[in-house]
Write a structure and sequence with these properties.
Oligomer: heterodimer
Shape of chain A: extended
Largest sheet of chain B: 5 strands, antiparallel
Distance between the termini of chain A: 67 Å
Strand content of chain A: 15-25%
CATH architecture of the largest domain in chain B: 2-Layer Sandwich
Largest interface: A-B, 94 and 92 residues
CATH architecture of one domain in chain A: 2-Layer Sandwich
Largest sheet of chain A: 5 strands, antiparallel
Order of helices and strands of chain A: HHEEEHEEHH
Structural class of chain A: alpha+beta
Order of helices and strands of chain B: HHHEEEHEEHHHHHH
CATH superfamily of one domain in chain A: HIT-like
Number of helices of chain A: 5
Radius of gyration of chain A: 23 Å
Number of strands of chain B: 5
Strand order of the largest sheet of chain B: 1-2-3-5-4
Helix content of chain B: 40-55%
């Protein structure tokens, strides 16, 4: 709780602090960054307090990513940006400065002074293979994504039932010589 | 190679096909070019970057050839981000990374180097020497920000608002209602909403708009007009 109370962005969401809001729905809020790295730097955040991406449910990630895309399109059209960068900083080591998970949407223009180019590091074949094996092992379970619980679940079940019934009917039919 | 004249006579589909043929990442996806694959499903492929910013730098590719993000349909965008979350978690677990950066460059000016959309996942360590993802802070005058805010809000509302007025869906709706049995009609909203859900997943090309609109319809408490009114009302006074 205390983490939530101290969070600058939870207070912005709760309207205790003023911010320049550009999009809002019941799950997400997008504002112009109070600490911008360039004109038009946008922060998109879930309204619920999460610190890192691992805590954010999959369906919320899906929702946020769709809005990210829409905002990115709007940035291209409304601000005449020549490009956009989407950035998630996950952990203090990765540059995260606040305790609230957010997606940065950064409009890019010529000579804007920003630079996201990295120096490639040289790794030998053995190092690459070790990383490959370790990661492959760890990504085996991917694919079962968490869905949002829908309020009326009854009908979903109903549909399943119908499917089963049909299958049963088909099976019965198949038995006929 | 193709001459400019030939290019001018090509249909958009042919041009796209040509781009695919020349795209190194499309070759990696089809298996013509070897790569270190980390994860693969029907929509995306994750490989190790051969010029990594850090050990374990992963490129997450959409199998379909898109150049930039605005071309990508909603379902693929949400899928790639959910996979990115899972891979980011795998980096923390398997590589003992202390953080991750998830990064997208849209456009050459933003640092995009290949004409195939990709999402970078970069595992981070305390002393890796990467400074580029520490965002600088700049002083930007308040009136400039207000102008930007107004422009963006209008555009976002327009992007989402136009879709709510799409006639296609209005035409479609009575059909959907018509297919329901009398009993279901009586059961009203509770039934009506989820009934539409499985259908929209199956509907092919229109899925992008319909999903968006139905999302709006399912959440009656949120109205775009309300949001913009709300924003105008809450504008800080000087």
């Amino acid at each position: 709780m205390s983490q939530k109370n101290n969070c600058e962005f939870c207070q912005i969401i709760g309207k205790k602090i003023n911010a320049k809001r550009i999009f809002e729905d019941e799950k997400a809020l997008a504002i112009l960054s109070p600490h911008p790295c360039c004109a038009g730097h946008i922060l998109l955040m879930p309204k619920e307090h999460f610190s890192i991406i691992e805590q954010v449910p999959d369906y919320l990630i899906a929702h946020l990513s769709k809005i990210t895309n829409k905002i990115s399109i709007a940035v291209f059209e409304a601000l005449q940006a020549k490009g956009t960068n989407i950035l998630i900083q996950n952990g203090i080591t990765a540059g995260q400065k606040t305790n609230h998970f957010m997606i940065h949407i950064i409009p890019r223009k010529e000579n804007d002074g920003l630079d996201f180019q990295w120096q490639p590091k040289q790794l030998n074949q053995e190092q690459m293979s070790t990383i490959e094996l370790n990661l492959k092992e760890a990504t085996k379970g991917i694919g079962d994504f968490e869905k949002e619980e829908k309020k009326p679940v009854r009908l979903d079940k109903k549909i399943e039932k119908i499917d089963k019934e049909e299958n049963y009917l088909i099976k019965q039919l198949n038995r006929i010589p | 190679m193709v001459t400019e004249e030939e290019l001018a006579n090509m249909s958009p589909e042919q041009i796209q096909e040509l781009q695919k043929q020349n795209c190194i990442f499309c070759h990696i996806i089809s298996g013509k070019v070897a790569s270190k694959k980390i994860y693969e499903d029907d929509k995306v492929l994750a490989i190790l970057d051969i010029n990594p910013a850090n050990p374990g730098h992963i490129l997450l590719l959409i199998k379909e050839h898109y150049q930039v993000m605005p071309q990508i349909p909603d379902d693929e965008i949400s899928h790639i981000f959910m996979v990115a979350k899972a891979i980011s978690h795998a980096c923390l677990k398997a590589l003992k990374a202390q953080g991750t950066n998830i990064f997208i460059a849209n456009g050459a000016l933003a640092g995009q180097k290949a004409p195939h959309f990709m999402l970078h996942i970069i595992p981070r360590a305390n002393v890796d020497g990467i400074k580029i993802f520490d965002l600088p802070e700049k002083d930007i005058p308040d009136d400039v920000l207000d102008q930007i805010r107004a422009g963006l809000t209008n555009k976002i509302n327009e992007l989402l608002g136009i879709k709510t007025e799409e006639p296609v869906v209005l035409d479609k709706k009575p059909e959907e209602i018509g297919t329901k049995s009398e009993k279901e009609k009586h059961e009203e909203k509770k039934i009506k909403e989820p009934e539409e859900r499985p259908k929209q997943e199956k509907s092919g090309n229109k899925k992008e708009e319909t999903k968006e609109i139905k999302k709006r319809e399912q959440k009656p408490e949120i109205d775009l007009d309300d949001i913009s009114n709300f924003i105008i009302k809450n504008e800080p006074k000087k």
